[in-house]
Design goal:
It is built from 2 helices and 4 strands. By secondary structure, it is α+β, with helices and mostly antiparallel strands. The longest helix is centred in the N-terminal third of the chain and has 50 residues.
Amino acid sequence: MKIQNPKSKIQNSFTLIEVLVGIFLIIIVFLGIFNGFQLAMQVIERSKARISASTIANQEIENIRNLPYESIGVLGGFPDGVLEISTSTQLNNIDYTIDKRVYFIVETIDGITPPQDECPNDYKKAEVKVSWQGRSAGQISLVTDIAPKNLSQECATAGGIIFV
């Protein structure tokens, strides 16, 4: 018959506190990984929306640049033109609102101030804002300057022209 020393037994079991601490640490690690994944998905979604909005805004700016000078303006606005003030479109399952604004710029760099300037509106500035809603809501804005070809073209719309 063998006599065993109780101190010589190797303990192969975990206590309840050790198990709970281990589970807690594993949960913390997995929550960190999960939150990092969620953040990465939000960044990707916002980037996709911004890239799509930039594409839409660039298309609108190019459409404005290809219009005749006399047609550049918003319907019923000053300057009057063919552009709608606000439109909407959908791209990549995101709804975008496109707002356009066109206004005259009066420059004093041409040396003639407005009281003496027969054509005070020297050129037009067009602004396109594209906005979207949702979890990654935001907006971008692009601006371009449109100059008339000659003095008679600008004065035909009660404006002016800059000579450089």
